[in-house]
Amino acid sequence: MYRVPFGKESLEFSLPSGMRATVAVSRTAPPLEDARAAVAEALAHPAGTPRLGSIVRRGNRVCIVFTDATRSCPDHLLVPPLLAELNSGGVRDEDVTLLCGIGMHRPSTHEEKVAKLGAEIVSRYRVIDNEPQNAAALADLGMTEAGVPVSMHRAVVDADVVVATGIVEPHQYAGYSGGPKTLAVGAAGENLIAHTHGPAFVDHPGTRLGRIEGNPFHEAVTEAARRAGLRFIVNVVLDDDGRLLRVTAGDPGEAFRDQVAFARSIYEVAVPRQYDIAVGGVGYPKDVNLYQASRAASYLFFAPTCAVRPGGYCIIPARCPEGVGNGVGERRFYGAMRDAPDIGSILEDARKNGYPPGQQRAFVMAKVLEKIKVVIVGSECPDAVADCKMIPAATMEEAFQTAGRDAGFSSDVLIVPHALLTLPVVQS
Question: Which helix (H) or strand (E) holds 65?
Answer without folding.
Answer: strand 62-67
